[in-house]
Amino acid sequence: MGDHELNPERAKKTEERSRRNFIAIITAVVFGVTAAAMGLFNLIFMRPRVTYGSPAKVRVGRPDSYSPGSQLELPENRIVVRRQGDKFAAISTVCTHLGCTVNASDIGFACPCHGSVYDVRGDVMGGPAPKSLSWFRVSLAPNGELEVDKNQVVDPDTYLEVKV
Amino acid sequence: MSDEFDRPEHDRFPSGSSGKTYGLMCTVDADAPAVEAKPEKSVQSWPAAFIRELLLFIVVVLVLSLIALYFDAPLEEPANALHPPNPAKAPWYFLGLQEMVGYDAFWGGIGIPGILAGLAMLAPYLERKKGGEGVWFHSSRILPNLIFITLFVTLGVLTVIGTLFRGQNWAFIVPW
Amino acid sequence: MSVDKVKLPADADAGKGGLIGTLKAMPKRVYHSVFRFRPLPKTHMERSQAVAANFFLHIHSAKTTERALKFRTTLGLGLISLYLFIILVVSGVFLMFYYVPSPDAAYDRMLDLRGAVFFGTFLRNLHRWSAHAMVAVVFAHMVRVFLTGAHKAPREFNWVVGTALALMTLLLSFTGYLLPWDQLAYWAIVVGTAIAGYAPVIGEDLRFILLGDYTVGGEALLRFYVLHVVVLPTVLTLGIGLHFWRIRKDGGLARPDTDEE
Ligand code: HEM
Ligand code: FES
Question: Model pTM?
């Protein structure tokens, strides 16, 4: 193939070939970019903007409906609401292992699925769970009810002070 | 109908000026893989292959119909997001995974399965040495077969453990 | 001879005998328009043509090696996978006539299949057991291919296609597992999809897109339904077509170069 320069016929052909290559590359790039864009659009399409499941913000009743030093399991919201003195907190009962609902007791939480055990603070004491249970932000809604926002995870031992 | 078929070939198969029924299938600029170098014992696919295939189909349909007649598919209580059963188990073919997930969520559920799937996909590119094609347990392939069987049996054992030997709270139980 | 001058088999008596003749020639003409070979071909030539001229038969070559026909070569596992898939598609389409993919209705429809649909229990059983069997048989097929060294050159790519088929089979079975919406289904999917959430970086997003929500609910049921009845069966059908085509292009089933055994 070293004789391009010597052979004008060949050189011309090579030039033509490189032009074709160029066009082929451009075409491939255009197709590639289009395909990538369509893939991305599909992903965005498949990602819902609103969800129809249970809402992230839930009202859990007036503060005075809880007695000091107690906690209440709210299974349909998958949280426990805990009151200590005049302070309130909400802890997730979704096992951090594979999402079963843990059972709350005085000494902590236990998962029925693969045996994860958590202490009262939600820290892992045993089993395959990789993380401690989440604490959620609690606030006071305008109508005087407590409101838990399950999209806002806060540090453990974060309580909301309420004048009951 | 037979009279029609007793007429010459090119009358019955009008597929072009030559009357041939085959067209060019492919051209190769190297060794043609489908061309045998040696004479092979072969038979007409019709009826030898088709009869066998039909028979196997009938057997499969029959066996599954019998199973479906005598064994009912399970149906439990309606789904209830508040009360996980104890233990909650994935379908049996994922119980090997679930068993590994019980040791470590990431490695058991993603890491090791990912590596295994990757190894499986790349197997023919990893095992480059020629020889032993189409022969059961060929003597030149002892090592690859051994690795493959080991991995498969390990997964199988984990699956059996997850299926039969795991009870409440995923504690180890003995099924009998 | 150009194409338009070729005499079609039924042309011989074309135009003869008016209406009666047309009617008399009808069965023959119809048969010839569909099949280009005689009902039970006899000679080698005819049999080869029967294979080549039929859409469903021509995935075979006209001849098959005796070796490939021996049961112990394949244990029939690839074919059984195909047959189970066919049973699943047929029984699945029947089930679709009575199934509703909504959390309110799905479970009731399962009960209806038992009590209110003719042969409903049988259909559901058949679909369920075939699905389990297909997973098992596909993996057994994979084992047989490896242990006979049939994945090696030039069949590497067909092995890769095969692994994709195996993954697809798992997904198909898994998406179907949710549809009865009973405790077994629900919690299997909760646990199964939670595993997806562990994938690094994309895990949470992947799980969210798969479920269409943060938890397993109506959206997840609808998504799994669409994947189960449309997307995955279509992809698997195309994949199986590719798989079979490759078997022929790779020169039929793997066999040793020499006549060793
Ligand atoms: C939907 C699933 C599948 C179907 C319906 C299917 C079907 C088939 C059939 C009918 C054959 C002909 C020989 C035989 O019956 O064994 C075959 C061969 C083959 N299959 Fe599959 N298969 C499937 C999955 C797989 C998987 C999971 C693999 C491997 C990862 C695989 C790899 C191969 C290879 C390499 C061959 C050629 C074997 C040889 O040349 O001897 N297939 N398949
Ligand atoms: S889901 Fe709680 S231990 Fe696995």
Answer: 0.83
